[in-house]
Each structure stands twice: as structure tokens, then as C-alpha cells.
């Protein structure tokens, strides 16, 4: 049984997000800062990822002023509280086949999440792809949620948002000391 550690290559990895509301959806990206994936016999066994919440970008709003206003709102306490909590962390705690369970911490609040992933290792490079659905209200993001407010009509924002994650990681080159 060979265990290998991979360091995430942030510049080649990407996370896209989609948030939906009654009248449509918004989408964008968020940057992965760093992380580690551990595999045994080419199967995922554990890992962690750190996401930069200050890097949220909106792709579907092209007007610069409206885009900046929306980005500021996502960074505010209504959503990610990015100034106080500049990082979100996912720690993988168990894996069975391609089903992953982990602890996700956003705004200092940790909840268990589960998702499926596909992991491939070839020539010292790991690629992992996953679609993760997150209930924002579990992380104190209640803005225009039907769970907390009534009579929202067409201003309601759905509680779940989706992340499409692609991780590229390189095999860690352990340095051996000769004594």
C-alpha cells in the first residue's frame, strides 16, 4: 500500500460557483489558496483545502459598478464576512469509494458536508473533480432566505449554492536527509 501526498497547484485549480434566486442566477469564481490531498493506492483517503473568500468574483454581471456593488455585498456580513473570515476550510474526514464526507468551515462555523468526487492520478499529477452543494443558511448567510424571512416574493434567494471544483495537485517531493 503506497501512500502519497499531493500539494494543490492553486494556479491550475479552479472553483466556480452558482447562486440561484427566483428570477435567475449569478455565477463566478473563488480562488483556492492551498491544500493537500493524500491518496493510498491511487484512492483518496484525506485532505484539506483552504479557499480565499476575499477572491470572490462575479462573472455574469458586466457593468463594472453593479459588479463591484454585488461583490461588496457577497463580502459583507450578509454573506461571507470576508474581512473577518478571509478563509474557508474543507477538511476531508472520510472517503468511501468516490463519496467524500468532510467538515466545511465558513465564517468560523463548521458543518459536515458530503459529495462525490472523481480522482485520477497519472505521472505524479492528481486531478479531482467534484460538484458540491452548500446550504448557505448553515453558515449564518440568511439574507433573503425563505427559512428566515416571509413575503420575499421574487427577491427570494435559494439557500443552496453550488460549487464546481477542479483540483490539480502535484506529488510532494519529500526531501531525504542523508546522515
Q: What descriptors fit this protein?
A:
1 helix, Lipocalin, 7% helix, 179 residues, mainly beta, elongated
- How would you state the average pLDDT, rounded? 92
CATH architecture: Beta Barrel
Tally of separate helices:
1
- Based on secondary structure, the structural category is mainly beta
* Main sheet summary: 9 strands, antiparallel
**Outline type:** elongated
The share of residues in extended strands comes to: over 45%
Number of domains as seen in the coordinates = 1
Q: Determine the CATH topology.
A: Lipocalin
Q: How large is the radius of gyration?
A: 18 Å
Q: Would you list the SSEs in sequence order as H and E?
A: EEEEHEEEEE
Q: What's the CATH class label?
A: Mainly Beta
Helix content: under 10%
Q: CA-to-CA gap between the ends?
A: 27 Å
Outline the low-pLDDT stretches. none
Give the name of the CATH superfamily: Lipid/polyisoprenoid-binding, YceI-like
Describe the structure.
By secondary structure, the chain is mainly beta. The chain has a single domain (3-171), classed as Lipid/polyisoprenoid-binding, YceI-like (Lipocalin, Beta Barrel), CATH 2.40.128. The protein is 7% helix and 59% strand. It has one helix at residues 64-75, and strands at residues 3-8, 14-21, 24-40, 43-58, 87-96, 99-106, 109-122, 125-135, 157-171. Strands 1, 2, 3, 4, 5, 6, 7, 8 and 9 form a 9-stranded antiparallel beta sheet that branches. Strand 6 (99-106) and strand 7 form a beta hairpin. It holds the Pfam family YceI. This is YceI family protein. Residues 5-170 form the Lipid/polyisoprenoid-binding YceI-like domain.
Amino acid at each position: 500500500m503506497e501512500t502519497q501526498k499531493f500539494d494543490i497547484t492553486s494556479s491550475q485549480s479552479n472553483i466556480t460557483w452558482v447562486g440561484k434566486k427566483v428570477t435567475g442566477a449569478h455565477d463566478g469564481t473563488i480562488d483556492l489558496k492551498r491544500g493537500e490531498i493524500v491518496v493510498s493506492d491511487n484512492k483518496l483517503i484525506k485532505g484539506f483545502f483552504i479557499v480565499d473568500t476575499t477572491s470572490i468574483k462575479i462573472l455574469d454581471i458586466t457593468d463594472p459598478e453593479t459588479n463591484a456593488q454585488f461583490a461588496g455585498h457577497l463580502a459583507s456580513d450578509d454573506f461571507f464576512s470576508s474581512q473577518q473570515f478571509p478563509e474557508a476550510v474543507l477538511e476531508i474526514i472520510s472517503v468511501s469509494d468516490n463519496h467524500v464526507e468532510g467538515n466545511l468551515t465558513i465564517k468560523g462555523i463548521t458543518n459536515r458536508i458530503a459529495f462525490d468526487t472523481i480522482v485520477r492520478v497519472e505521472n505524479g499529477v492528481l486531478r479531482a473533480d467534484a460538484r458540491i452543494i452548500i446550504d448557505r443558511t448553515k453558515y449564518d448567510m440568511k439574507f433573503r432566505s425563505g427559512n428566515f424571512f416571509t413575503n420575499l416574493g421574487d427577491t427570494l434567494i435559494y439557500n443552496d449554492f453550488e460549487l464546481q471544483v477542479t483540483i490539480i495537485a502535484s506529488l510532494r517531493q519529500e526531501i531525504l536527509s542523508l546522515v
